[in-house]
Amino acid sequence: MGMFDTVHHTDKNGQKIxxxxxxxxxxxxxxxxxxxVPIQDGIHFGYNDDEDGCFVVFNGIIVAxxxxxxxxxxxWGDPVNYPDINV
Length: 87
Hints:
- The protein is mainly beta and 87 residues long.
- The chain has one domain (5-81).
- The protein has no helices and six strands.
- The strands form two sheets. A three-stranded mixed beta sheet has the order 2-1-3, with no helix packed on it.
């Protein structure tokens, strides 16, 4: 257990997405799309690929939140599963 920050979002179907993250100084803060967040720009994935989603930070602002299952595509338009992403 430990401290984490959380991004909350409700998608267009009314389904709630809650993504916990430990990037930066965790202060139990809660964020939503449009909020400034003190972490680096990029795509941040939740830990559990079946339940969590991911969020996009651009210029220090959360600009998008979505379920990453069935939402990631390669350059040919084929689905990419979260565990298949290599760093």
